[in-house]
Amino acid sequence: MSAGLVAAVDAQTLVDAVGLGAVFALMAVGIGLVFGVLRLVNFAYGQLVMAGAYTLAFTSGWPVGARLLTCLGVVLVLTMALERAVFRPLRSASPAVMLVTTFAIAFLLQAIARIVDLRDGTIGEAAASVGGLRQAVTVAGVDVRKVTLVAIAVAAVSLGLLALMLARTTLGLHMRAAAADFQTARLLGVRANVVIAFAVFLSGVLAAIVAVILTIQAPLVTPGFALKETIVVLVGVVVGGIDRLWTATLGGFAIGFATGVINGALPTEHTVFLPSAVFALVVLVLIFRPGGLFAPGRTAVVERV
Fold first, then answer.
1. I need a labelling partner for 16 at 20 to 30 A (CA). Which of 6, 38, 182, 204 fits?
2. Separation between Cα atoms, residue 47 and residue 197, nearest integer Å
3. Alpha-carbon span 138 to 127, nearest angstrom
4. 129: how many CB neighbours lie within 10 A of its CB?
5. Do residues 19 and 80 touch, judged by C-beta distance below 8 A?
């Protein structure tokens, strides 16, 4: 049985798994940025992705550039509105209150999307492809969809630019300081509103990118779009180590990669067992590494971003 599963993991499965891991890593970064400065697990992150996906669906007849810019604009407006109207007033609230609030926002946005979607009496909107990215190309004998290559490239570039920004810019230094000790950072002159708003802004940019990639991979947009992926990524962030951005990112990639490999290895009639297999692995990891799979052991919490 195990030999059959190993044999089923071919080059095609590995490439698809890397592509899925790249998308999940981008989502993990978006979630980790907000957690780093606010200590807020934003469960509503998937609904920001959903808003971008609906925007792409409703503008399917527009030029590609206009669609992408509109998607980015809608997601950023919604993201910054949430930061100003919800996150900022709740900064001093307990983590439980903030988490429940994001749950409420997520279901509110889902309800609004359902109302908008039902305008024609049906649920679901089809999003047109962007630049023919659903087509496949052959690389070393393996058929790879263009969107998979784009997802990997975008994730690598985005994470590289983010790492440079955090390491080489004043604002990046302020974000790292705020993530380590927010109160002390404020006493030392770090402008809290600017740092938090910028972190939330970056998370919104990543949400828009993820919306584009996911709508290419799954063009039917519904009110529950990206909800399952968000839950899986949140689990991956915890598995990787939520206290640091790089461990959270690795956790997101790892759970995406594991999901892709297991899905490709399982026979079609057994893919119903995919969530059970993935979350069973998660439980085992958390039992033996409760601090996170990639956490560097018992070290002081200094740089979480």
1. 204
2. 19
3. 25
4. 16
5. no
For the record, the structure tokens of 143 come out as 């058929």
- Express each pLDDT in 211-244 by its tens digit: 999 999 989 999 999 998 998 998 888 888 877 8
Residue linked to tokens 């039902």? 118
DSSP class of residue 187 equals H
Provide DSSP, 54-69: HHHHHTTTS-HHHHHH
Q: Which residue has the tokens 């949140």?
A: 234
- Residues 276, 292: Cα–Cα separation, whole Å: 20
Q: Are 37 and 182 a contacting pair, CB within 8 Å?
A: yes
The whole model's pTM is what?
A: 0.88
What is the Cα Rg of the chain in Å? Answer: 19
Residue matched to tokens 């990891």: 285
Question: Cα separation of 45 and 225, whole Å?
Answer: 11
Report pLDDT digits (tens) over 8-64.
467 778 888 999 999 999 999 999 888 888 888 889 999 999 999 999 999 999 999
**In terms of Cα–Cα distance, which of 112, 102, 85, 122 is closest to 31?**
102
- Tell me the C-alpha distance between 37 and 192, whole Å: 9
Nearest to 266, CA basis, from 40, 6, 69: 6
User: Which architecture characterizes domain 2-288 according to CATH?
Assistant: Orthogonal Bundle (1.10)
Question: Which residues make beta-bridge pairs with 197?
Answer: none
E strand map for the chain: 125-126, 136-139, 142-145, 220-221
d(CA 12, CA 141): 9
- CB-CB contact of 297 with 49 (8 Å): no
Structure tokens at 277: 């297999």
What amino acid occupies position 295? Answer: A
Q: In DSSP terms, which residues pair with 144 in a beta bridge?
A: 137
What are the residue boundaries of the structural domains of the chain, listed by start?
Answer: 2-288
